[in-house]
């Protein structure tokens, strides 16, 4: 990339990186991100809440807060972050560079918020944890949120999470708010997968993205960590256990605004090896000026195809059971009793001899089934290098895992 000016962008780094003029966020958005957002918008009462909050949220106050109590990134303050920010906006062709602030907080975190105009906030914990290339992926992650328009819903999530605590004493008041908060969190976890992809498009260094995610999970101890072993954890997490573990996975992720870090790493690595990523790198991608002609029906079809592929290829016991039900497999009642036997303390009933192994490896009682190849897309699980996530440990709001 040559140095120069473009829409106010200057001082771009000398290392050559491919640029994507006019790229649409559709190019990198995870199908689960789009489908979850559609489901969110269909949630009863969401439109009313959204319209009301759009006019009531103290966005101006929020901007003044960061202006008065954080350090604004510029040529004179955190200049290296300013270079990364301008470079990210140049690569993704975001015409207006959003303001960026560094906030004193030892917890590694980052977020992109705002209704009319997005602002990016990173914590000192994140700046001190990551090296230059890892941080570049995080900044690209946040710029991807801005390009996708995620900041609006993130801001509402922050506000509603705080509001839910204040109205907890009102009968049914908290229930109504938490229904929307839960739906917002489900969407936001999926949006993190999209933003991780944007971070890779900006940094164009998969190993740096992987290192950043590992550091967010295990701290600044790279000499003690290994990328392959880290990704094996994601494999074990998805495939391990029985139906009880599948339910516990769902319960564990519900209160989170971001997917689990190993899941994010595995998802990003899978996308980096896909034909879709290579096509973008070769210059073949959807343009923003084509967005108005995008078919909603096609988006639904793509999302449905993604979920179907995920269920077919998933190694999770619950997903295997769902796939078997769809395929008309017999004796599902017995398999469910074996899968959930631990909840009642009963021993799994030995299956009748059908000429094949009755249990998964090690006789764990896991529902058996043929091994299936991994699909092109993983499950969405969605916090971020540079996670933008909502929750801040200080105010109980959703936290962004970098």
From TrEMBL:
Name this polypeptide is given: Peptidase M48 domain-containing protein
GO CC annotation, single: membrane
Cofactor: Zn(2+)
Keyword vocabulary terms for this entry: Cell membrane, Hydrolase, Membrane, Metal-binding, Metalloprotease, Protease, Transmembrane, Transmembrane helix, Zinc
Any GO BP annotation: proteolysis involved in protein catabolic process
A Pfam family per the record: Peptidase_M48
Start-end of Basic and acidic residues biased regions: 1-13, 283-304, 391-402
InterPro entries referenced in this protein's UniProt entry, alphabetically: HtpX_protease (IPR050083), Peptidase_M48 (IPR001915)
Organism: Streptomyces coelicolor (strain ATCC BAA-471 / A3(2) / M145)
